[in-house]
Amino acid sequence: MFTIHLQPEYLTSDVFSAGVSHCFTTRRGGVSVGHLSSLNLGVHRGDDWNNVYENYRRLGQAVGFTPEQTVFTHQTHTDIVARVGAADRGWGLFREVEPERDGIYTDELGVALVCFAADCTPILLHDPVRHVVAAVHAGWRGTARGIAMRCVEAMHRDFGTEPADLEAAIGPCIGPCCFETDANVPEAIVAGLGPEAEPLIRPAGEKYFPDLKRLNALWLRRCGVRNIDLSCDCTRCQPDRFWSHRLTGNARGSQAAVIVLHGREGDA
After folding, report:
1. Is residue 93 a part of any domain in this protein?
2. Average of pLDDT values for 159-188?
3. Of the four listed, 97, 116, 232, 236, which is most buried by Cβ atoms within 10 Å?
4. How far is CA 97 from the centre of its chain?
């Protein structure tokens, strides 16, 4: 179940236990202007950097992180995930992120992982046993390649995360009501997931309408994740609350999903 918070407006999922702060943003509650109005969190959307910084400051004050703690993805619609840490704080907001990485994960405290969306699927993960968090951007290409599962595998490899322990939240993205595609998209998705994906792709004449949230949830369940929360919001259906690339193209800002691991009981 997702909860709406105001000033600035963002969503949180009840799936996460203690020890983390997180959010899925809307476009409301910042200082950016024009078609970037108002909570633009993308540094490459043509916005004034000072506006973007102030948006992160306001959001972080509400959620529980500082702009200086952020680490960004560098999204190119891959299935690449990367381990990051405190030494990487500032990558994205204060200096360019060079390596491609559509997913990032860490076990270090005070590292605010940030991924972006404006129709694509943002996914946040928390392992409350091994104390690991992740932020994943899954467009349709990343969905077809199973980036959500790739991140779970990397968390298991590096930190011993057991998928059954994970808490997962899949945030607002374009819904099956609006995500109209040609045949190449469902073909790629079925090639990755097999026939089990077909009920999650609605045919309509020569077009198709994939359900990206449930397709990513299918990847997570396939690798053993059971505790999964899905937002009901479609970014294309609510232009007053969300930016949608399908609706406005590049004349838009960026929403973000953020997760940060805090101290837990027994920490100094």
Report:
1. yes
2. 98
3. 116
4. 17
Residue 266: inside a domain, yes or no?
no
Q: Contact 120/144 with Cβ under 8 angstroms?
A: no
Please, which residues have CB within 8 angstroms of residue 150's CB and are 6 or more apart in sequence?
Answer: 79, 80, 81, 103
Q: Please state, in angstroms and rounded to a whole number, the distance separating the CA atoms of residues 109 and 88.
A: 12
Name the residue among 76, 64, 123, 126 with its Cα closest to residue 101: 76
* Cα–Cα dist 164/234, whole Å: 28
Residue 2 lies in a domain: no
Q: Which amino acid, residue 208?
A: Y
Q: What is the pLDDT of residues 209-225, one digit of tens each?
A: 999 999 999 999 999 99
* 69: containing domain: 18-261
Rounded to an integer, the average pLDDT of 69-76 is 98
Q: How far is CA 132 from CA 86, 87, 231, 239, 252, in A?
A: 13, 16, 22, 34, 32
- Give the integer Cα–Cα distance in Å for 198 and 87: 43
How many Å apart are CA 57 and CA 201, to the nearest integer? 39
The sign of the dihedral angle between the CA atoms of 67, 79, 242, 62 is: negative
CATH, residue 228: 3.60.140.10
Residues of the chain with pLDDT > 70, as a percent, come to 98
- pLDDT tens digits, residue range 239-255? 999 999 999 999 999 99
The span from the CA of 41 to the CA of 30, in Å, is 9
Residues 217, 143: Cα–Cα separation, whole Å: 10
